[in-house]
Amino acid sequence: MRTWLITGSSSGLGRALAAAVLKRGDNVVLAARTPADVDDLGSEYPETTLVQKLDVTDSEQILATVSAAVARFGAVDVLVNNAGYGYRAAVEEGDDDVRRLFDTHVFGSVALIKAVLPQMRARRSGTIVSVSSVGTQLTPAGSGYYVAAKAAVEALTGSLRKELLPLGIHAMTVEPGAFRTDFSGRSLSQSVRALPDYAETAGLRRKENDSSSGTQPGDPAKAALVILAAVDAATPPPLLALGSDAIFARRKAMEATTATLELWQEMSMHTDVDSEA
After folding, report:
1. Maximum CA pair distance of the chain?
2. Taking a C-beta distance cutoff of 8 angstroms, is the pair 248, 242 a contact?
3. What pLDDT, on the 0 to 100 scale, is given for residue 179?
4. Distance from C-alpha of 1 to C-alpha of 26, rounded to nearest angstrom
5. Alpha-carbon gap, residue 95 to 136, rounded angstroms
6. What angle (nearest 5°) sits at the alpha carbon of residue 130, between those of residues 125 and 136?
7. Is 62 in contact with 79 (CB distance < 8 Å)?
8. Cα angle 12-9-132, degrees, rounded to a multiple of 5
9. pLDDT confidence of residue 277
10. Cα four-point dihedral sign 241, 246, 251, 255
């Protein structure tokens, strides 16, 4: 039996994953900014849940949550950094909320990783799952700050994986496509100002112009089962793309990058010290 600590477990992919983990009999620390939102799961699985109030930008709450998890279940075997929200704005329109966005997605994830790693290193086992977004490949207009935060999480997790593998600990990135969650609804914020010059680019993705909520192709319950299978694998994948749209976007991005490399390869290679100009 493993113990999972899942941030942002009150809705969307985090809640679906928590429900799947509990259904199969593992322990789950249900970490949410509003604990009442997960009380139903706690009541349904009283022996295997621990409900904790957690804002991932609060370092004291992070330490308290990890300490409570270890005290209750003995260890944290799997950390899932899932807490987060969307933010839309043209780069020029970005406001003070951008700092909180990075505090949540990047520095909150880092703080949780640092909090669980000492006991994982002591046991020489554990798994850290970082939830990113296929937006890191699509880089859509209007989502620059959000995908920049997620790209930082992906890069950090890639390095973390190399650091931890010799210690028997795994780190993996989950890159979902569009799923039927609250991401494009309640969990989406945006800049206060909208400049007219960006109306046909970033402006098209503002909340008032986005009708995608509830029509996304991805099923969070199915995604949860795939994440479970990946964590259970002898060697979890470095990157787990979720959804047909995520696979397609990844492949298109790889093809575009390869084409650009080939186009500029000859000139680029001439920058080596020993190359012929």
Report:
1. 71
2. no
3. 77
4. 5
5. 21
6. 145
7. no
8. 65
9. 59
10. negative
* Residue 114 half-sphere exposure toward CB, CA atoms < 13 A: 11
Q: Quick one: which of 98, 121, 131, 122 has its CA closest to 170?
A: 121
Active site residues: 132, 146, 150
Q: What integer best gives the mean pLDDT of the chain?
A: 93
Report CA 255 to chain centroid distance, whole Å.
24
Residue pair 142/205 in contact by the 8 Å Cβ criterion: yes
In the chain, domain spans? 3-248
For 29, the 3-state DSSP assignment is strand
Torsion angle in degrees (nearest 10) through CA of 227, 229, 233, 236: -20
Region 162-179: mean pLDDT is: 94
CA distance 277 to 270: 6
CATH value of 3-248 in 2.60.40.10, 3.40.50.10860, 3.40.50.720, 3.30.70.1730: 3.40.50.720
Q: Return all residues near 109 (Cβ < 8 A) that are at least 6 apart.
A: 56, 81, 130, 153, 156
Can you tell me the distance from the alpha carbon of 106 to that of 100, in angstroms, rounded to the nearest whole number? 10
pTM beyond 0.90, yes or no: yes
End-to-end CA distance of the chain: 62
Residues 195 and 92: beta-carbon distance below 8 Å:
yes
107-124 as b/e: b if 16+ CB within 10 A:
bbbbbbbebbbebbeeee
- Cα distances from 53 to residues 37, 75, 272, in angstroms, run 10, 18, 54
Query: Helices (H) and strands (E) in the chain — how many of each?
Result: 9, 9
- In eight-state DSSP terms, residue 1 is -
